[in-house]
Task: inverse folding
């Protein structure tokens, strides 16, 4: 590839990299704000999370179009091809992470109508762990840091264990007081959404490993 063409392509890849990180930031904010709406009792913030999801979806598809354009016009090979293919996969996971944040916000709004609320219990802990994994996955993506990406993948077992504790505590409270079954069901849904954030953070980390090493290994099992 001629030097001038290579420089142009490198700039395009850098723009793609920055766009993915921008989407990651927006997705992270959706989850954090959905969780904050729940823990702080902020219905307006929950509505804001739901409203901004349209913009996040649009950004995801803009990035996908950018990836397809690069594949069609630049005919990348080897590491460049992995970078673009990984970006295509990562933006899908990031958009779905934002969806999980939106679902937390929506479920919280439904909780507001429940006559018998329930303590959040372990949910804030699960949320904090999931956000930490996402933060580290995005940091690994930003710097192509395989060691950090592998650490995120190893953390998935911790997230699964925390989800199990959260799930069991909610079910136990529902059994103890059947009048809280409705509220408990909503909290179980929120816990599920937060656990999925951790799973998708692991997916992002796996794609970092693939981009750098060329090895496509499923560590989130």
Result:
């Amino acid at each position: 590839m001629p030097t001038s063409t290579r420089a142009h392509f490198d700039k395009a890849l850098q723009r793609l990299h920055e766009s993915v990180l921008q989407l990651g930031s927006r997705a992270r904010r959706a989850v954090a704000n959905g969780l904050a709406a729940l823990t702080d009792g902020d219905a307006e913030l929950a509505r804001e999370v739901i409203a901004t999801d349209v913009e996040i979806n649009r950004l995801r598809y803009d990035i996908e179009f950018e990836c397809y354009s690069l594949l069609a016009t630049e005919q990348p090979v080897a590491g460049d091809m992995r970078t673009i293919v990984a970006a295509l996969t990562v933006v899908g996971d990031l958009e779905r992470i934002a969806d999980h944040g939106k679902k937390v916000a929506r479920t919280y709004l439904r909780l507001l109508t429940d006559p018998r609320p329930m303590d959040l219990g372990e949910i804030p802990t699960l949320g904090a762990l999931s956000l930490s994994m996402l933060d580290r996955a995005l940091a690994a993506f930003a710097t192509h840091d395989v060691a950090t990406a592998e650490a995120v993948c190893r953390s998935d077992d911790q997230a699964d264990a925390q989800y199990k504790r959260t799930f069991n505590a909610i079910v136990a409270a529902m059994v103890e007081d059947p009048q809280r079954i409705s509220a408990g069901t909503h909290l179980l849904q929120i816990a599920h959404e937060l656990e999925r954030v951790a799973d998708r953070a692991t997916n992002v980390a796996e794609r970092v490993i693939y981009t750098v090493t060329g090895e496509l290994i499923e560590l989130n099992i």
